[in-house]
Amino acid sequence: MQRKAAGDLRKMLTDGLVEAGLTYEAAREYWTPRRLTLDIRGLNARSKDIHEDIKGPSTSAPEQAVQGFLRKAGLSSIAEAHVHSDPKKGDFYVAHISKPGRAAEEIIAGLMPDIIRNFPWPKSMRWGPASAKPGALRWVRPLQSILCTFGPETEEPVVVDFEIDGIRSGNITYGHRFLAPGEITVRRFDDYVSKLEAAKVVLDADRRKEIILADARNLAFANGLDLVEDEGLLEEVSGLVEWPVVLMGEFEEAFLAIPAEVIRLTIRANQKCFVTRSQGESEALSNRFILTANIEAKDGGKEIAHGNGKVVRARLSDALYFWTTDQGDLPDLVELEASAKKFGLDLKKPLDQRMARLDHLNVTFHAKLGTQGERVERIARLAEELAPIVGVDPALARRAAVLAKADLTTEVVGEFPELQGAMGRKYALLQGDHKSVARAIEEHYKPQGPSDRVPNDPISIAIALADKLDMLVGFWSIDEKPTGSKDPYALRRAALGVIRVLIENGSSLRLTKILQEQWMNWSHTRSAAEFARPLETIASAKKAGFDVGDPQDEKSVITTIAAQMFDKNSIEQDLDLHMGVIVPDLLSFFHDRLKVYLRDQGARHDLIDAVITPRSDDLLQIVRRVEALGSFLDTEDGKNLLAGTKRAANILAAEEKKKTAVAETVAPALFRQDAEKSLFAAVNQAEKQAGEAIQNEDFSAAMLALSVLREPVDSFFEHVLVNDEDLSVRANRLALLTRIRTATGQVADFSKIAG
Questions:
Q1: What distance in Å separates the CA atoms of residue 193 and residue 28, rounded to the nearest whole number?
Q2: What secondary structure letter does DSSP report for 81?
């Protein structure tokens, strides 16, 4: 919060100074828990005089126009304006505005009260007797003092004088609240920094971070340990102290039975402390932790460390309870048997029990997308379909998908939601599941951002793709797509995740077929569920006159009722029609995300546009086409072929616009020159070889096949006149140009390539 607040202060004041006509060389913000500071260098001592002429209406204009001119120019009467003459337009009013420059301290004094009063704190408070008055000052915590000085380095600076709610600016500040609380009189910034440091305040947050990190590393090393570094925690802690003092605390070794992630999060979230591990250890933690105090205690910090240790022990006791509870049996196992049967779960295993409970409780995923249990079933079906494509056993893929969301009902994840997936992996390993299944439970959420790694285990790939594709299809189906800057369900991230998983693992996948199948899977399930849900119990269904037979579970009831409620052919037609809109739109969304991804990788936007078509559904193939096309166009053959192909396309476009006849096929009998014959033979060869290479997904070979066109295309345009007087010859030559466009079009639309 302090970092952002300091940035807000810099932007608000510098914007105001520039708007008032001042310039400056540099501005840098600083912050501590108790102060915001802005240092501005090279600021003009005075703003420039302003001379401006504002042209007004004709002297014969109606009164309304004259009054508008006066308001715009800031004049009190028309007598303050001047009359100018124009030979064509006649007489008109002009206001000659002169504004003398103002001193910088005057401008600052005018800006600061509004900045302070309207400061964008996420939360603010009022305090003291003045808080009862309307419009009382609000601040993140009670504002104690304001220091504001201005002046050149060679002269005595002046106090920029202003007041807000009884607090007057000055040249006095205060040191550390406990270690040096006395007044400090300062002149300019360098003086301010050095006197604060002497008063136990380190103003620069980055320097506080360096102190904390270095002292923590040294303290850990001195005790035979390594610090487990945490940049986010370091940033947070550096904003909580003005005079960082690093200490070490400890807890009982018995708590090390808890997973390292849980220990780390418990200590981090509750006490803002760093954890340590034995030197050379890669995962297991030690029972020592590092804390950062804001005071130099007389006893060397023993009581502070002891007090933090007591709190840490209490929190770890809770974590140990959560950890052991998750490995025991649930009390309502009998009620979970139907869900266990539905998903093929073993109720002797703790994680299987949690998945059965997730389904049994009908935990909602989204009001329009059903329950978590229904979603898991869809993900499992899709994972089974993807399994052969990525080369894994469908049974293992289904097992991983079924357990992927099971840890959502565990005690540890309830306390630390950020551990979802990680705890599922641990619990799966504890109950003897396959290592790849356990790994997929953790990794199916990845990648969660552009810097996050992608899963590379085949089962993890299948579940990660299934999870993200189900999300995208589902939200597209209920028309909850991202709009502008709004993306509440992180669908852009999900699409980018699919793209990265496929491309960075070299996985080829025909998205159209997969999206269609998942759409039908989702829509059939939801159609039945939405309409049959009110009659899902056997009793209510029979009462309503439906023959439900002897169904074993809720899903059977719904399916049976739905089959009787609707005409199957009509439903199929409606679903096919809807799918024809949803899938192309979603595929277009993937194309947009892929373009962003490739541009971030340094690919040329025109090459991407040249390769992607509305039907391009193999993302890996698109990337490889772009790479091969880029490499080809870097060669002389590529550059020359591009020029020739674009020339052919331009001629065709011009003739097609004039509705000139173009032969349907090329007739060799109409060739009059050797250049035509050579080009025709080269096109036949290139078209065949490029087509075969594309079938084999060898795009470099396809480009090589096209390269043979370079010389015959150049020769054709050098020796042959396309627009021959003989209309049949002209039509035949235009057909030959069409063949060039067709042959190169197998690889890319060359007309979209710059150059």
A1: 13
A2: S
Residue 636 is encoded by which pair of tokens?
Answer: 């002389």
Are the C-beta atoms of 498 and 473 separated by less than 8 Å? no
Classify burial at 428, counting beta carbons within 10 Å of its beta carbon; exposed 0-12, middle 13-18, buried 19 or more.
buried
What is the DSSP secondary structure assignment for residue 455, as one 8-state letter? P
Q: Is the pLDDT of residue 171 over 90?
A: yes
The 3-class SS string of 209-252 reads HHHHHHHHHHHHHHCCEEECCCHHHHHHHHCCCCCCEEEEEECC
662 and 518 belong to one structural domain = no
DSSP 103: B
Q: Dihedrals φ, ψ of 170, to 5°?
A: -165, -160
Residues 448 and 579 in one domain: yes
CB atoms within 10 A of CB 78: 16
Residues 374 and 499 occupy one common structural domain: yes
Let me know whether 91 and 114 are in one domain. no
DSSP string, 364-405: EEETTTEEHHHHHHHHHHHHHHHHHHHT--HHHHHHHHHHTT
- Residue 440, both tokens: 């997929």
Which DSSP string do the residues of 45-69 spell out, in sequence order? SBPPPEEEEEEEEETTS-HHHHHHH
pLDDT band at 529 (very low <50, low <70, confident <90, very high): very low
Of the pLDDT bands very low, low, confident and very high (cuts 50, 70, 90), residue 536 is very low
* Domain tally, the chain: 5
Confidence band, pLDDT 50/70/90 cuts, at residue 411: very high
pLDDT at 75: 83
Q: Which residue segment(s) compose the domain that 83 sits in?
A: 50-99
H helices, E strands: number in the chain: 28, 17
More confident residue, 82 or 445: 445
| Total residue length of the chain | 755
Distance CA 564, CA 555 (A): 14
User: Are residues 520 and 423 located together in one domain of the fold?
Assistant: yes
What mean pLDDT value characterizes the chain? Answer: 89
CA distance 640 to 563: 63
| Spatial distance between the Cα atoms of 311 and 511, rounded to a whole number of angstroms | 52
Same domain, 165 and 264: no
Q: Are residues 89 and 143 in the same domain?
A: no
What residues form DSSP beta bridges with 288? 250
Average pLDDT over residues 394-402: 97
Q: How far is CA 253 from the centre of its chain?
A: 40
Give the model's pLDDT for residue 43. Answer: 92
Classify residue 381: in a domain, yes or no.
yes
User: In this structure, what DSSP letter does residue 577 have?
Assistant: H
Q: Which of 262, 570, 220, 582 is nearest to 407 (CA)?
A: 262
Q: At what angle do helices 422-430 and 435-443 cross, to 10 degrees?
A: 160
What is the spatial distance between Cα 235 and Cα 209, in angstroms, rounded to a whole number?
A: 7
Phi/psi region, residue 234 (left: phi>0; alpha: psi -120 to 50; beta: rest), is alpha
Would strands 183-185 and 245-250 be described as parallel, antiparallel, or unpaired?
Answer: unpaired
Contact present, 148 and 112 (Cβ < 8 Å): yes
* Residue pair 392/458 in contact by the 8 Å Cβ criterion: yes
State the Cα–Cα distance between residues 12 and 691, nearest whole angstrom: 61
pLDDT exceeding 70 applies to what percent of the chain? Answer: 93
pLDDT over 90 at 314, yes or no: yes
The pLDDT assigned to 53 comes to: 82
Task: Return d(Cα 697, Cα 507) in angstroms, integer.
Answer: 13
